[in-house]
Structure formats: structure tokens, C-alpha cells
Amino acid sequence: MPEKIYKISIAGCGKVAHLHAKAIQNIPNARLSGVWSRTPKTAKDFASQYKTRAYSSINQMVVENEIDLVIVCTPHPFHWQPAVEAAEAGANVLVEKPLASNLQDCDAIINACKVRYVKLGVISQRRWYPPVIRVKEAIDAGKIGKPVLSTVTVLGWRDKAYYDADAWRGKWQTEGGGVLVNQSPHQLDILLWYMGDIEEVYGVWRNLNHPYIEVEDTALAIVKFKSGAIGNILVSNSQKPGIYGNIHVHGENGASVGVQTDGGAMFIAGMTGIAEPPVNDLWTVPGEENMLKKWVKQDTEFFNSCDPIVYFMKCQIEDFINAIKDDREHAVSGEVGRKTVELFTAIYRSTRDNQPVKFPLKLEPGLDGRQKLFEDKRKKTKDQRRTNSPFEEPVPRQRKGQGDVKI
What is the pTM of this model? Predict the structure, then answer.
């Protein structure tokens, strides 16, 4: 009996969609069968490049082609519509990170998939990096004892050309947030994979040196985990040209393990490649302290032997296909992906309310607290002095007899 060919469609035809299309081309039992975009011309051009058909209706695309899987690649605030429509049409759904930009949209997607008994997953392809897996296996094997302390550090850079490349970037309504929503979900997901569920978060976000965007370029957080462990998060797009992104975990027996998922100038989908291979950058497990050089050499050689961007995307899509075939949960399910959204939402709310946020979070409407600091700064009184802060705009001087000036 011939092997089943899984038909995959892509919803959203921007830069990251090309990585998925190339990954699909490298999966023997998968075929790209139709694309959809909010912009018809973009879908048509994309379809022409990858020799498939562009659709104006997700339902039609799924039903006509008997699609097994729809991969959602729209900007974050727009994941909800194509994901729900694909599920309602009977397709399994794999959503680019994060699952959504707010919890309400996460729940809408999760519920739609449950109602139709289709599978839901969230892209987090760095989980398939060998050094990332090595850390997880060490923790699960008890090599560091109980994990008691963890850190996430992402020091990257995004310039004006990056934000000018797509009209949706850098805006609350169309990107949903900044470094928390766009660049750090990979590392936040891995942190939660290593450390488990959260009890409480205190966070602060700021825009340090990107005055031409609305959203945050930097965020800090202190995390209390339900296990009793604690953690620290520092994520930023403010360090030229990009330094590194890593996750370190320290155990109660004094041993530590860690992985640098990103090094040097940060990867930008459709614009740059991966500058440095992912490697274990910390390892003090008794008896294994001297393994780092061997692993770094091994992981670097593998990295240089393939197209790592396409390869690891392919790894996750293949795992999702196998989850469909075996009728099991995908490694990064919808519920798992929601936890990352809950974490960055808690950091936004903590900044807004200037206090720790307890988990689980209750649902809130709209942008869920993330815009308030920006708006409050803009509404400074008329005696506000000029400043270089990206949150503060100079207030026009009033002439004698003139009413309040609207800004």
C-alpha cells in the first residue's frame, strides 16, 4: 500500500511562509496544495513561485483539496481568522509562533480545533536543536537534581529597515507587541518546557532606542514557578548587531546546563540566515564537564552540513504529520503554545499595574494592557518638557487666550 501523501496549505504568504514552503518541499510524504493570503496578489505570486494554486477562501482551499494541514503564517494578531476557518473546514492546524497575540484569540483557536476534533500545534522549531534537546534530557534524567533557577537572555537588534520592510511591524494593532511577541517566544517556550508551569510574574517593558515604533524593544521579568523554582527573563532588540540568545538552568545539586539558541546577528525570516550554530554554552554536570568541546564541534559540523533554517522547520512539520498519523498530541500543542502567550501577557499587565501577576490569568478584552504605558506617556500635560524618550512627544506651547491644544 503506497504511503499517504499529506496535503498541506499555507495561510499567509509573507516572508516566513517561504521557509515553510521550502520545508514542505523537503518532506517526501508531503505536498504543498494551495495557498491563501489576506492580499490576493501576494497569494497569486507565492502560488506561482511554488507551483500551486492561490485561493480567496480558506474553506474552499481545504475542502476542494482535502487538505490535511493548514500552516498559518499571517501576522500575529491575524492568526485567529485563518486558524479557525481551517479548523471549521476540517483541517489540522499548525500556527506560526506565537499561537496568537492575546489569550482570547488563543482560546478561540483551541476551541475551534476541539469542536472539530482536529489537531493544533504551534511552531517552535528550536526545540529540535540537538543542544536544546540535550539540556531537556539532562534535566529529565535528574543530572542537575531539581531545577531551581533559570535565566533567559536574548540580546538582539532590529533596525529601522526591518520595521519598514512590512507595514504591520512595530504597531500594537498589527504586530501585537514587540520583542515579547515576535522575537522571544522561542526562548520563552523552551524555558517553560524546561521549568514547568508558572505561579507569578513581575515584569517591566520599555522602548529603549526605537522611537519610530509603538511597541516595546526590551522587557525584564522575575518568574516564580509552581515547582518553587525561580527565574529571570531579559529580552531586548536594542543591542547592535545582536549578541546572543540563551537559556540556562541551574539545579539543586549545584550543576548547571545551558544552550545558546542564537548567536551574533539575529536571524530574521526571509531577510537573513542563522549567523552561528546553536550550541551548549554551559555544562557543569559531574563527570560531563569536558563534553562541551565535543558537542560544540559535533553540532557545528551538523549545522554546516545542511540548511538549518529549512531543516529544523522540516523537523517540526514532520513531527506534526506523525502526530496526525499516530493520532497523538503534537510536541508543541495549542495548550502548550497558549502558555507562552500567557507569560508575555502577564509581563504587559504587570507593567501596566506595577505589581506581580498571579497565574492563571483571567481574560481581558482588547490589547490586554500592553498599550497603556505608551498612551499614558503620550497624554502628558502641556508643561511636559522635550525629551528623547520614544514614549514622550513634545506638547505644543499655548498662545495667550488659546484653548487646550489637542495632541
Answer: 0.90
